[in-house]
Amino acid sequence: MSQMSRSAVSNDILSESVEGAASASGGSFDAETPAASSSPSSEDSAAEGSASQTRKLVKRADLRLRVEDPEVTEKPLTELMKKYNAWPASTGIFENSRSYSIRVPSLSYDSMLAELTGLGKILRRTENAEDVTLRYYDLEGRLTTKRELLKTYQGYLSKAKNIDEIMTVESRIADLQQEIDATGTQFRNLANLVDYSTINLEISGPVNSSSYSEPAIGEKLGELFGSFGHVASSALVVLAGIIIYGIPGILILILLFWILFGRIGLLKKLWRLVGGKK
């Protein structure tokens, strides 16, 4: 495909996109009119549209409670989650505590959080609301624009005159589809965080200050005899080491003394031999 034909494809598509946007807005576009020369009325309408947008918040709460028995508290907690159509995204069960990451519909967030605080004594409570309004509507607008542009390119396929034009349009369609998938994933993840709030709940049992008790007499005697047995076993090990390694060592020293200074007296004979030569 020549450079002129590729340019013609782009120009035709751009013309159709502009015409489609104009028909959708109920007006017409002037190619020679600068984009900056927007009228005050259009600015006012844009401001009104921005003001009419529903605020989008991502709500999170951290709540820590003290209860008499964490295991017993599981039943009313399960009933609360069922009541507000919530579910535990993660759960941790420990000896004297429980932890939950609860996802709840944002419309029921305040009500459920208020009832959760009634399950025990509040040790800590923090809340956070992140305003993602601009990001939410930006992603939504970009997604809508890309989908409309994709329809335009798909409609142009039937007007393509040769293989080169078809391949050019299909390549652009593939790129747009990837952009739509990526933007759509971001938008869905953000929408999920907006629609479902998160409550991180930690439930702890009572602090048992009498967990340590004085050992009984029997336990003390057991510890005493246990210590004595440990000392006795250590002494036996030392004694066995002396028998195994000490006695042979002593015998070797006696043998060396007998060879060098005893009846054989090798050192004595050597000394005499040296003295006789002198």
Report on this structure.
This protein has 2 domains: 1-26 and 53-205, no CATH class; 245-273, no CATH class. The N and C termini lie far apart (119 Å). It contains 8 helices and 5 strands. A hairpin with a 3-residue loop joins strand 2 and strand 3. With 278 residues, it is α+β, with helices and mostly antiparallel strands. The longest helix has 45 residues, at 217-261. It has a 5-stranded mixed sheet.
Biggest beta sheet attributes = 5 strands, mixed
* Content of β-strand: 15-25%
Strand order of the largest sheet: 2-3-5-1-4
What is the CA-based Rg, rounded?
A: 44 Å
User: How many separate helices?
Assistant: 8
Gap between N and C termini: 119 Å
The low-pLDDT segments are: 1-11, 17-47
Output mean pLDDT. 79
Q: Order of helices and strands, N to C?
A: HHEHEEHEHHEHH
Instruction: Tell me the number of structural domains.
Output: 2
Coarse morphology: elongated
Instruction: Output the structural class.
Output: alpha+beta
Q: How many beta-strand runs?
A: 5
Please bin the fraction of helical residues. Answer: 55-70%
